[in-house]
Amino acid sequence: MSKTTKKVRDKWRTKEWYSVYTPAYFGEQNVAGIPCEDPKKLIGRVVETTLYDITNDFSHQSIKLYFLVTSITGDRADTILKSHEYSTDYLRSLVRREVLVSTGFSPVEQLTAISHESTS
After folding, report:
1. Residue 79, domain member (yes or no)
2. Is the pLDDT at 120 greater than 50, yes or no?
3. What is the pLDDT at residue 101?
4. What is the pLDDT of residue 119?
5. From its phi and psi, is residue 99 left (phi > 0), alpha (psi between -120 and 50) or beta?
C-alpha cells in the first residue's frame, strides 16, 4: 500500500489584505486590516474598535464601536456604524462604585429624500 501525498496549499498566500475605513462622520480613518481571498466575503463583516483609536482621547477608551463593512473599492473597505457599547471592565467599575448609569433610547427616523407635492 502506498500513501498518496497531497500537495498542501497555504491559504494565507491566496489572501489579500483590505484596509477598513470609518464613515465620513468619523473622519474616514483606517481602523483595521482584514485578510480575505474573495472581496465579496468581506461585505457584512463587523469590525470592532474603540473610540479612543479614532479620537486619540484617552477618556474614550471605554467606548467600543462596531462598524459593518458595506462596500469594497479596490483594497478599501467602507463601513457604517452598526452599534456601540461600554466595555465590560468600565461597567463593572461603575457598579463597584455604585454609580447610576441611565441610558435613554428614542426612536430616530432617517430621511433620505423629501418630496414636496404641490396641490392644485
Report:
1. yes
2. no
3. 58
4. 47
5. beta
**108 within domain boundaries:** no
Cell triple for 75 = 483594497
- pLDDT (tens digit per residue) in 62-95: 999 999 999 999 999 999 999 999 998 888 887 7
pTM above 0.90, yes or no: no
Domain of residue 63: give its range.
11-96
Which residues is 48 bridged to in the sheet?
66
In the beta sheet, which residues pair with residue 68? 46, 80
- Output the CA–CA distances (angstroms, integers) from residue 77 to 47, 56, 70, 103, in the order listed: 11, 22, 7, 31
Listed residue (23, 45, 49, 22) closest to 34, CA to CA: 45
- Cell numbers at 54, concatenated: 479614532
Rg (CA), the chain: 22
